[in-house]
Amino acid sequence: MFLKQPLDIKQQIAKLKEHGMQVPDEAKAEKFLKKINYYRFSGYALEYRVSMNTSDYTAGTDFDNIVRIYEFDEKLRNLLRLYLEKVEIYFKTKIAYTFSLRKCTLAPYDQHYLPSNYYRADKFASLLQHITAEEQYFKDTAFVKHHIMTYKNKMPLWVLVEIMTFSTLSKLYSCMYLSDQEAIANSAGTSARILKNNLHAMAILRNRCSHAGRLYNDTLTLPVAFTPQFLLRHPKIKTNTLFAYIVMLSRRLPDNECKAFFQNNLCRLIAEYEEYVNLDLMGFPGNWHLLI
Q1: Which pLDDT tens digit goes with each residue over 27-41?
Q2: Dist CA 188 CA 190 (whole Å)
Q3: Is the separation of the CB atoms in 95 and 180 below 8 Å?
Q4: DSSP of 62-102, one letter per residue?
């Protein structure tokens, strides 16, 4: 089977119109599609398809409205990325200091490099090779150079976490003994089971946001873990939706002030675009304001 034939911008617009989309200002649409891939743009119009088996759009589907949805998704990614960064830094701190004070108590204080200090020792040994590769990426930074020269390429854990991605941090936590996981989780007001899941889920969300992946009208691969009590109180929350991830992110923020800023910024963004976006497609229940 042949791949689809490439289309120039005018042909792309003609194709949209052929499928029933209204394009009030073609010059404006051309300008937009020169910056935003046609295939990326079409993903934001999925809710307007007559069915998933056709490329035809329902009557009244407007190009400019889809652009508004695209803008919303872009701003939402930027907002979530900002607060995911705060959570990442917070848990790098929690994990590094709690684990170090529990394990790295004897000279030369490098016990965080020992597979024997991890329940999943084989997984940690493999992860350590990955961390070494990450060190190479940062080899020209001052603090990495300093530790290579002074400490024979070893770093305290609170330094080492600074070169870890969110995904690597999540994997490091999952390698630890349950007692160490619980100590870290308890200090953050949750359980090891939930934190292990949440770190993994936040890494997934961070990657989606960092690579400009679509959040609107899509699901995420890993269901979010909450307490059974929370799920019983809020049975309408679907744990693989963006809303579930937003609730999780809000709960993992380091303090109430940060949480309040996040809530206010999210509410303002949704109010700005509420005419264009369908909150149901992101898993938002009717009382969503009360849950974040």
Answers
A1: 999 999 999 999 999
A2: 6
A3: no
A4: BHHHHHHHHHHHHHHHHHHHHHHHHHHHHHHHHHHHHHHHH
Domain boundaries along the sequence of the chain: 9-43, 71-290
> Do the Cβ atoms of 178 and 192 come closer than 8 Å?
yes
Can you give the C-alpha Rg of the chain in angstroms? Answer: 23
Asked if 66 and 232 touch (Cβ cutoff 8 Å), the reply is: no
Determine the Cα angle at 73 with ends 72 and 77, to 5°: 120
> H helices of the chain, where?
9-18, 26-35, 38-43, 63-103, 121-137, 142-150, 157-160, 166-175, 178-187, 192-210, 228-233, 242-252, 256-273
44 membership: H or E segment, kind and range: none
**Angstrom distance (rounded) from CA 39 to CA 175:** 39
pLDDT tens-digit map of 246-267: 999 999 999 999 999 999 999 9
CA distances from 6 to 9, 274, 283 (A): 10, 34, 35
18-34 as b/e: b if 16+ CB within 10 A: ebbbeeeeeeebeebbe
pLDDT score for 146: 66
pLDDT tens digits, residue range 132-143? 877 777 767 877
Q: What is the pLDDT of residue 52?
A: 85
Q: Which residues contact 35 (CB under 8 A, 6 or more apart)?
A: none
